[in-house]
Amino acid sequence: VAQLLKVLSYGVILFGALVDNARLFEQIRQAAISDSLTGLGNYRAFVHVLEGEIQRSQRTHRPFALLLMDLDGLKQINDRYGHLVGSRAICRLGNVLRQHSRVMDTAARYGGDEFALILPEAGAEAARTVGQRICERLASDGMEPHITVSVGAAVYPQDGTTMEELLRAADFALYGMKRKQDSVLRLAR
After folding, report:
1. How many Cβ atoms are within 10 Å of 79's Cβ, its own excluded?
2. How far is CA 41 from the centre of its chain?
3. 173-180 long-range Cβ contacts below 8 angstroms, 24+ apart
4. Alpha-carbon dihedral angle through residues 36, 79, 151, 157, given to the nearest 10 degrees
5. How do residues 82-97 score in pLDDT, each as one tens digit?
6. Is 34 left (phi over 0), alpha (psi -120 to 50) or beta?
7. Once rounded to an integer, what is the mean pLDDT over residues 150-175?
8. What is the DSSP string of the chain?
């Protein structure tokens, strides 16, 4: 009986170690594909999903949209309020993306203050609507400092059939919006 209990206790210890290892593996996997500040996907996860969406759309001949977003004036927020408030501004945009995206959409932090949103089964009109909704939700979140976001969209296959072409088109649209905002600000002064 003592020998059996001893073997069973080794089995329980081994099972516990296996469960701990599985948990640790999952935590490491999550850390490898998640942005630690926002909890959204990171650049690696974004590229993986975008490549998969391109392949899926090539098979199904259905469009999808890519939105690139850039938080406006983050440097000024950091300079005026400090980097902690700047990090909170980044998190605010991440929260808007998480709360106002469909389950099938993929939101990711693309870089510093840049974000991406992949919208499967969406065309140009849906991309415009989603981009506008994100801008409105961020502008009306009631938090200080007031933050805005510039958005550029690209639609597969009209704007490109490769990751590079889609990113270039969305980036071009994003900076077109930024230039337009800059000219409006200059006129308002």
Report:
1. 11
2. 6
3. 173/68, 174/68, 174/69, 174/70, 174/150, 175/150, 176/152, 177/150, 177/151, 177/152, 178/70, 178/72, 178/150
4. -60
5. 999 999 999 999 999 9
6. beta
7. 96
8. -HHHHHHHHHHHHHHHHHHHHHHHHHHHHHHHHB-TTT-SB-HHHHHHHHHHHHHHHHHH---EEEEEEEETTHHHHHHHH-HHHHHHHHHHHHHHHHHTS-TT-EEEEEETTEEEEEEET--HHHHHHHHHHHHHHHHTS--SS---EEEEEEEETTT-SSHHHHHHHHHHHHHHHHHHHHHHHHHH-
Residue type, 94: G
Model confidence, pTM: 0.81
CA distance 113 to 68: 11
Catalytic status, residue 113: yes
Structure tokens at 126: 């849906």
Q: Return the pLDDT at 109.
A: 95
Task: State residue 54's pLDDT score.
Answer: 98
Whether residue 33 is predicted with pLDDT greater than 90 in this model: the reply is no
Catalytic residue (choose from 70, 105, 113, 159):
113
- At 56, which amino acid appears? R
Count of residues in the chain? 189
